[in-house]
Amino acid sequence: EVFNFSLITFFTSRSWKKKKIGKLIISKTHIYGLVKEISFPFIGRISHTVLTQSHTFVLAALLSPEITAIYSFTSKVAMLSKHFVTIYTNGLFGSINIARAEKSFKEFKISIEKALTIFFFFLIISLGFSFVFSYDIVRYWVGADKFGGEILLLLIVLYCFMIELFQFQNNLILAEGEF
């Protein structure tokens, strides 16, 4: 995290020097605005983490740890595919802000449509991959008896699809400032 922050700071300051942008002005008004802007995504991240991680504890408490392990092994490939698409979705947040600031509404709409097309392409390909190859990966990883079945896998893939779709829409709303 510190390395990434340092790297981003270095390249941003270098870019500002090339474009001859003045020094950064920090005031209480700017800090308040920044906290206001980042609080919604931050709270959304916390709730997303709680939502996606707490279900295994509930499953273990209500059912058995063995069934929870089978669920966990079955969902690994789909969750990995979902996280692959999440990288694109989160990276799109800043790009949408820049496009909104620099382009006309028509060009902005076209860029959103292109982003949505690429998003659906990545999402369908990655979740399709996870649906097709999950059984083989789980079988080689921990054994075929730890695979939860195709119906469970289909439910997990549908869950990942819906969560990614909602997260993408959430990022669009946040980037457009409509919260």
What would you note in describing this structure?
This protein is mostly helical and 179 residues long. 87% of the residues lie in helices and 0% in strands. It is elongated. The mean pLDDT is 79.
* Cα Rg: 21 Å
Helix content: over 70%
Largest sheet: none
- SS strand fraction: under 5%
What is the averaged pLDDT score? 79
The dominant shape is elongated
The string of secondary-structure elements, in order, is HHHHH
Distance between termini? 28 Å
Structural class: mainly alpha
Itemize the secondary structure elements and their pairings.
Blueprint: H1 2-19, H2 28-62, H3 65-102, H4 105-141, H5 150-176
Helix pairs in contact: 2-3, 3-4, 3-5, 4-5
Short description:
With 179 residues, this protein is mostly helical. 87% of the residues lie in helices and 0% in strands.
Features:
single chain; 179 residues; mainly alpha
